[in-house]
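Lab manual, section 2.4: Encoding a predicted structure.

Procedure: take the sequence of the chain (252 residues), apply the prediction step described in section 2.3, and record the output as structure tokens. A sample record is shown.
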Amino acid sequence: MSRILQLLCATACFLHLSATSAEMDAVRRDTTKAIYVSGAIRQGDASQFVAKLRSLGVSPLPVSSTQSYPRATVVVDSPGGNLRDAMEIGRAIRANKLRVAVRPDGECLSSCVYIIAAGVIRLPLGKVGIHRPYFVDIPNQGVDVGLRETLVASKKYFEEMNIPTNLADEMFSIPPGDIEILSDAKLAFYRLNQPDMAFAEENAIRAARERGMSRAEYGHRMSQFEARLKACDRAPDFYICANDLIEKSGLR
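Recorded output:
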């Protein structure tokens, strides 16, 4: 085990942990697949998560895959927990191109933020909160070095997920006893309430090609469509209004 992984095993036990591991349920309804993760994240939960994925028939995609929609949804409601397992869950989510959602009455705090960051589609309908991880014991290399290495590992992880790495800096500026619930503006700044930019770009290129448009033309038409779609909120029938806009824009 690498030094960083050893560190993360001893790190990232965030506040409000329960005595048991997170509860995970895999659900399949027709073509819909979902995994529900609730409670504190404990060591070993990443293996449980991967096992749940396999039970749904979801396996990692090759790097060259052009999968254009999320293969399953991960619904999280967690106060945080073990950082290493949260990162491993996140990397499994990204490898399988999954959507991550937080219910309106749910929360995703502390290390759970590493999980929502991994989604190719991110739907934070509930609370998303951050603070600095803490140690359960003094690491061999000392707390000062340990914290710096954890910060480096966090930045590397967020870079992998196409998330601004200064999210880690803001996390580490908030003491473990406090928590900051991210506003909509901060969720947007850190891209936690929008699709992964690489996933979105792949889909835009594919959609433009299917419609016989250049990527620039497709982007222009999408921008116009999204701007005009707001007016449909005042229409007698939103769906008729939206479908009419789609037809006129040539995006059908």
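Check your result against the sample. The CA atoms of residues 232 and 240 lie 9 Å apart.
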